[in-house]
Amino acid sequence: MTTKRLYYDDPIAQEFSAEVLGCEPVSAPALPAAPLWRVKLDRTAFYPTSGGQPNDTGRLGDARVVEVLDEDDEVIHVVDKPIELGSVKGIIDWDRRFDHMQQHTGQHVLSAVFHSRFALPTISFHLGSDICTIDVRGQEPTQEISDKAMAAANDVVYADRAVNVRYGTAEELAAAGVRKTVERTGTLRAIEIEELELQPCGGTHVRRTGQIGMILLRGVSRIRQDWRVEFACGRRAERLAREDFATLRAVAQRLNCSPQEAVTSAERVVAERDAHFKSARASIQKLAEMDARAYLQQVEVGADGLRVVAKLFENEPAEYVQSFARELAQAENTVALLVRGEDGQIFFSQHPTAKKDMNALLNEALKHVAGKGGGSRDSARGRLADPQRGSEFLAIATAALRPKP
Ligand SMILES: [Zn+2]
C-alpha cells in the first residue's frame, strides 16, 4: 500500500500520528547483536534516503528509527524494537532534518547559479555528514567563477525568495520551464525557487531561501571528466567558519602575529628555515671533511696496500656520515665502510685506485645481516633492517673486503 508522505506538503512537521500496518524482523541484520524491525505506516513524516538526501532519524513510539528506506510507493522505517499494530506517534530528529533541508535547498540555489551563469550543469549531488558536494560538467570553475557563483547564490539567500512545491505531469512541468527530462509518469512534484528555477524533486526544502543561511564554497577538485564543488550551508557554514578561524588564530599564535599577518609571517618563517637548513648543511659537510682528513692521518696502510676505515657512528647526522665517507674516498687506495647507528644507514665509498666493488661488497654483507641497498663500483648506500647490528655488519664487510690469506 502506498505510504502517504506528509513531508511533501508539510516539510516542517516534526511530530505526527499514524497507523502501524506491519512490523517484521529484518531477516539479515548487519549486526546480529542488534536485531532490527521493518515498520510500515499508513502515513509518515520521515524522509527516506533518496535523491542525494539522507534519511531522517527519530522515534516511533518507544522505538528508535535508525534508517528509512524508499521502496517503490512505500516508506520502510527500520527500528530497534518491535512495534504493535495500531496507532503510533512519530517524532523526527529535527536538528538533523533541518540541516538536510538547509543543505538541500542550498544545493538547488548553487546548482541553478552554476548552470544559468556559467553553463555548468549539475550531474550529481551528495549530502555527507560533514561536507556536501555537487559534480558539475563543463569549463573549469576557477577561483573567480567560484567566488562569483558563491556571491550570486548568497544574493538569492538575502533576497529571501519563496520556495514553492508544484505538482503536474511531465508535459505540464516542461511547459512551465523544467529543463530536466523526467522518466516517471503521472503526477510529479517539482520545487520552484521564485525567479530562479523549477526542478522536479522529492526532497525536503526550507520555506524561503533566507532559511538556507550562508552558502559557503569550500573548494573545487577534478573528478574524472567533471568538477566536484564542496560547499556547506546554514549551521554547517557557521560551524566551519568558526573552526577555520580557530585554526587561523592558533597558527597566528604560534607565529606570534595577528591572524591578518599569518601568511606573510609563515612565508618568512619558511624562508628562514630553508636558509638555516642550507647553512647548517654546509657547516656539517665542512666539519665532516675536516674530521675525515684528520682521521685519515691515523689509519695505517695494510699489507694489501689499502687504507680501510670501518666505523660505526652514533649521534651524527646522516649528512655528516655521508660527507665523511665521500671525503675519505678522495684519498688514493682508501675504502670507507660507514654505518650510522641510529637508523642503520650504510655508506660505502672507495677511491677508484682501491679497485674493489662497493656494490658487490654491500650485497655480499647484506646476505648475512638483513637490509637493503645498492650502488656502483665506487659508491653504495643501504640500510640495515635492525640498526642494532651495525658492528656485526661492519665486521662481516671488512672480512669480505680483506679475506685472510
Ligand atoms: Zn530538492
Describe the structure.
With 405 residues, the protein is an alpha+beta fold. It folds into 3 domains: 4-92, Elongation Factor Tu (Ef-tu), domain 3; 98-252, Threonyl-trna Synthetase, Chain A, domain 2 (Threonyl-tRNA Synthetase, Chain A, domain 2, 2-Layer Sandwich); 292-401, Diaminopimelate Epimerase, Chain A, domain 1, CATH 3.10.310. The chain is built from 8 helices and 20 strands. The strands form 5 sheets. A 6-stranded antiparallel barrel has the order 2-3-7-6-5-8. Strands 16-17-18-20-19 form a 5-stranded mixed β-sheet, with helices on both faces. β16 (307-313), α6 (318-328) and β17 form a beta-alpha-beta unit. α1 (94-118) crosses α2, α4 (234-255) packs across α5 and α5 packs parallel to α6 (318-328). The model has no long low-confidence stretch (mean pLDDT 94). The structure holds zinc ion.
Short description:
This protein has 405 residues and is α+β, with helices and mostly antiparallel strands. It contains eight helices and 20 strands. Helix 1 (94-118) packs across helix 2 (143-158).
**Rg:** 35 Å
- Count the E strands: 20
The share of residues in extended strands comes to 25-35%
CATH topology of the largest domain: Threonyl-tRNA Synthetase, Chain A, domain 2
Contiguous low-pLDDT stretches (5 residues minimum) are none
Question: Biggest β-sheet: count, sense, barrel?
Answer: 6 strands, antiparallel, barrel
Cofactors, ions and other ligands in the entry: zinc ion
Number of domains: 3
- The CATH class assignment of the largest domain is Alpha Beta
Shape: elongated
| Average pLDDT score | 94
Strand order of the largest sheet: 2-3-7-6-5-8
